[in-house]
């Protein structure tokens, strides 16, 4: 949600995801739906943040497969590569060059205060916290600012990172002259969708419904979701968070208020609730899954190569501007 009076005419949109696994409903309602809407209105870049995978784990894992699948997920939800530049972090070395001056603009104390980084450290599988973990929000500032991105459709967890990007842009401009616009976050219908365990729905926390999951996998995941023993289904986020979360999921997929669904289910209990949620999710995802099945890995590779080339050209120009501003 962005201020009404803002003039969106000249915006450049940038977002991205880590290739850590398949996209899920949290991505869709947090960020992807906005991307699809905005691609017709503005120049748009979508970043596959591959280097960011090793912020909270020792190895990048099946990075190539995840990258391809992420791209196929984008295409399946309706991102159009003719309008949108989809690219990989690792294909744009200029981004890492921007990181150096940007790092000099933030203090260690500022990096240590970032609440999203703290939460990710708490969920990380690494024994020791890496330097990359603390500095990746600055890397992300480079990802946004290289294309002079101004509008960033993201979930709530990204708000502290957007503040870092704004801080970097402001301080760079103050120190070296006006180069960067200040980017703004744009949150989706559901800025923090919870997963089936009640925590933030995340690719890497095993609590997500993937856009590409089969109908049976979806049914099984929802069957295993926690509920409570009360027969009467009500929408009470504080008192009955698990039930409320399932109602929220179904409501988003059906485009209906969750309280209304609760009333319809009445005293049908958890079994009816889960049936309603499963049907809503599967119905919603059916066309997305169908489109995905029609795409090939070859499509993904070709689109990524084109996107990388376009993004790189843009990054080279910004880096030249940055060096000139700094007097290099
Ligand atoms: P990982 O567990 O590997 O960090 P993730 O599920 O958190 O994966 P990211 O690639 O880190 O996904 O995030 C991509 C984008 O999706 C970000 O803009 C983030 O804010 C948004 N997003 C992720 N999870 C949710 C969620 N549960 N609700 C709303 N938005 C989300
Ligand atoms: Mg994440």
Automatic annotation (TrEMBL):
<dbReference type="GO" id="GO:0006436">
    <property type="term" value="P:tryptophanyl-tRNA aminoacylation"/>
</dbReference>
<dbReference type="GO" id="GO:0004830">
    <property type="term" value="F:tryptophan-tRNA ligase activity"/>
</dbReference>
<keyword id="KW-0067">ATP-binding</keyword>
<dbReference type="InterPro" id="IPR002305">
    <property type="entry name" value="aa-tRNA-synth_Ic"/>
</dbReference>
<keyword id="KW-0030">Aminoacyl-tRNA synthetase</keyword>
<dbReference type="InterPro" id="IPR014729">
    <property type="entry name" value="Rossmann-like_a/b/a_fold"/>
</dbReference>
<dbReference type="InterPro" id="IPR050203">
    <property type="entry name" value="Trp-tRNA_synthetase"/>
</dbReference>
<dbReference type="InterPro" id="IPR001412">
    <property type="entry name" value="aa-tRNA-synth_I_CS"/>
</dbReference>
<protein>
    <recommendedName>
        <fullName>Tryptophan--tRNA ligase</fullName>
        <ecNumber>6.1.1.2</ecNumber>
    </recommendedName>
</protein>
<comment type="similarity">
    <text>Belongs to the class-I aminoacyl-tRNA synthetase family.</text>
</comment>
<keyword id="KW-0648">Protein biosynthesis</keyword>
<dbReference type="GO" id="GO:0005737">
    <property type="term" value="C:cytoplasm"/>
</dbReference>
<keyword id="KW-0547">Nucleotide-binding</keyword>
<dbReference type="InterPro" id="IPR002306">
    <property type="entry name" value="Trp-tRNA-ligase"/>
</dbReference>
<dbReference type="GO" id="GO:0005524">
    <property type="term" value="F:ATP binding"/>
</dbReference>
<dbReference type="Pfam" id="PF00579">
    <property type="entry name" value="tRNA-synt_1b"/>
</dbReference>
<keyword id="KW-0436">Ligase</keyword>
């Amino acid at each position: 949600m962005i201020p009404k009076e803002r003039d969106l005419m000249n915006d450049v949109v940038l977002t991205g995801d880590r290739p850590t696994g398949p996209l899920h409903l949290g991505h869709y309602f947090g960020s992807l739906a906005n991307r699809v809407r905005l691609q017709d209105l503005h120049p748009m870049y979508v970043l596959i943040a591959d280097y960011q995978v090793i912020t909270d784990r020792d190895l990048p894992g099946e990075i190539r497969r995840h990258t391809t699948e992420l791209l196929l997920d984008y295409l399946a939800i309706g991102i159009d590569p003719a309008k949108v530049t989809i690219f990989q972090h690792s294909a744009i070395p200029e981004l890492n060059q921007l990181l150096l001056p940007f790092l000099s603009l933030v203090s260690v104390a500022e990096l240590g205060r970032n609440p999203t980084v703290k939460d990710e450290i708490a969920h990380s599988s690494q024994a020791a916290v890496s330097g990359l973990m603390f500095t990746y929000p600055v890397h992300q500032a480079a990802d946004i600012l290289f294309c002079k991105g101004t509008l960033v459709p993201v979930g709530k967890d990204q708000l502290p990172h957007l503040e870092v990007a704004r801080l970097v842009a402001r301080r760079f401009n103050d120190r070296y002259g006006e180069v960067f616009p200040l980017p703004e976050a744009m949150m989706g219908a559901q800025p923090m969708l919870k997963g089936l365990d009640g925590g933030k729905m995340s690719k890497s926390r095993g609590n997500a419904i993937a856009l590409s999951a089969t109908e049976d996998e979806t049914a099984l995941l929802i069957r295993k979701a926690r509920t409570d023993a009360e027969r009467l289904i009500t929408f009470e986020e504080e008192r009955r968070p698990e039930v409320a979360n399932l109602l929220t999921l179904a409501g988003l997929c059906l485009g209906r208020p969750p309280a209304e669904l609760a009333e319809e289910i009445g005293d049908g209990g958890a079994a009816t609730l889960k049936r309603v949620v499963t049907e809503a999710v599967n119905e919603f995802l059916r066309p997305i899954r169908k489109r995905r099945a029609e795409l090939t890995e070859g499509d993904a590779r070709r689109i990524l190569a084109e996107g990388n080339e376009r993004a790189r050209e843009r990054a080279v120009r910004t880096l030249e501007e940055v060096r000139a501003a700094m007097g290099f």
